Amino acid sequence: MEARRARGLGVVSALVLLGTAPMALSAAAPTSTNADFLHGEWTWHDPLMSVSISFLPNGRYDWDMKTEGIDFPYKGAYHLAGHSLTLDPDGGAPQVYHLQRDKDQIVLSGGVFPAPRTFTETAGSQAKVVAVQQKEEDNQKAAAAHEADVDAQWRARIQLAPSKSDWPHGAIGAIPADTKPGHRFAGATVFKTVQGYTRQSLIGNPSSGPAGHQTMYSSRWYFLPNGRFYTDHVTEQFGVALDPAHPGGTHLGTWGAYRIVPGGDVDTMHVETDAGEKLTLKLTHGRRDLVFRESVFTQVQAANDTLDRMLDSLK
Known about the structure:
Layout: H1 2-6, H2 11-17, E1 40-45, E2 49-55, E3 60-67, E4 70-81, E5 84-89, E6 95-102, E7 105-110, E8 113-121, H3 125-157, E9 160-162, E10 189-191, E11 195-204, E12 214-223, E13 228-238, E14 250-261, E15 267-273, E16 278-284, E17 289-292, E18 295-299, H4 300-313
Antiparallel strand pairs: 1-2, 1-8, 2-3, 3-4, 4-5, 5-6, 6-7, 7-8, 9-10, 11-12, 11-18, 12-13, 13-14, 14-15, 15-16, 16-17, 17-18
């Protein structure tokens, strides 16, 4: 799959997409017609199972199925057109049901139900789902405000400035000596200090390799204050004999020039490799994330902060 998606792309663009799965988007809430009667909680049960569906006025729903003491909750968007009810769970495949209304009951057939199920409306639940919706909206606003505050803090940390022509071009740590330091965009806006971005993908049992082994793809971007960048793509294999010529994996490094066009919440980055390949990337979330199509590279300090929080949560 990854190889097919990479065909027809330049070397760097193909490498940064390698091992990347398409991003799953949460279901949006479409507009339903004549669905006001659905707003509320509807329940069905038999001796072995119970299902509760709460339909919110904003086109979202909460589903909770219980069987043998185990809960299977999820959320999504719903859409009613005539007698056709579509439940589109977040991160899942849509299910289409035939809906028949009968006073304070609805009969659903199709979807996950092998036979029609009659759901009864819970008395007073319309006010309940309105309260649930208001709580969710308040939580979303609070989360968005917090995220905006964090983004602002990171934008203040990861600053931009005019490129520096006097930056040294010798080897620095993991960055080798620049092979073409004169290739730069004139008058470019760039990172004020050295910035690094990274991502990893672990692929198990690829068709091109032996069964039982895994391949790790790592990509690292280094951006210098002189408008030059170096990207290193590393391939490591586990479960196979170590290649003595490449004990740390196979590296493919590329030098090039970059410039940044500042935006409101999103900055646009233009890069051109020394071989002439041109790419357009985005800097998002306070410049914490570098995005190229489906590939997201995280600024190294932000990645370390996330790892620290994960480790703290395990204490």
